[in-house]
Amino acid sequence: MGLERGVTANDVVIDRYTSLWARMYVPSCSGKLPLLVYFHGGGFCVGSASWSCYNEFLSSLASKANCVIISVNYRLAPENRLPAAYEDGFTTLMWVKQQALNGSSEHKWWLKLCNLSSIYLAGDSAGANIAYNVATRLGSSGSSESTILRPLSLKGTILIQPFFGGEALTWSEKYNNQPPNSALTLSAADAYWRLSLPPGATRDHPWCNPLANGAAARLRDLRLPAMMVCVSEMDILKDRNLEFCSALIRAGKRVETVMHNGVGHAFQLLHNSQLSQPRTHDMMSRIKAFINE
């Protein structure tokens, strides 16, 4: 399975009705550890928690950052258009809460290691979009997020090259030089949005463009935890990611922006340049610092 040494991985069923499942990564550590709820990338249309590139990346992250990771195998478009993936993200959090409240013996092997007041939502590309949209759902709900999640407490969100879009193209979407075998091109992004948004929606739909149609002004009212956003210099999404970070900071949110130079979209999974490995190690050490603040 390509697992990091000392990390145990097991699959768990979250919802039999929707075939929702997740892969747990548990490092051999003592003491209580943060829990990362992680969503894989793939434009909402492809990808799986069982892919070997995620086994490798997430088992390594669990080991290096000393955290338990639950990698969610959410429903994919076009069979299940958005908000299905967001619903699956929310359902997963509620499932973790239920196991914690029940003192589940079946899940004791990972639950007993988790610090339930240190939960993080994380993901890359479309998975980062899911993490953000689940966080905003919690932050805009009528009752406070702490009440819905209790005894869990959401401490932060980690967005790796978040997949957003918009009707008007940014400079990097038009002109950024892509590394060979890029994981994301403009035509692929267009296809993914066409297949995953509700029929008839434009790319200024809030799920795709969180800053469109005056949405940026409403960010101030959202209760969002601390956020870390990882941006890649050669990614077509670079400008959109930086604009997103600036809007959040202007709205008074706590945002740590991390730029990885010389690499493209999903470099941490593809190892498609000699810069990928050191940049991936840097990403993991920054995530470790962020979740252990």
UniProtKB/TrEMBL annotation:
It holds the Pfam family Abhydrolase_3. Residues 36-268 form the Alpha/beta hydrolase fold-3 domain. InterPro entries: AB_hydrolase_3, Carboxylest/Gibb_receptor, Lipase_GDXG_put_SER_AS. GO terms for molecular function: hydrolase activity. The active site is at 125. This is Alpha/beta hydrolase fold-3 domain-containing protein. It comes from Carya illinoinensis.
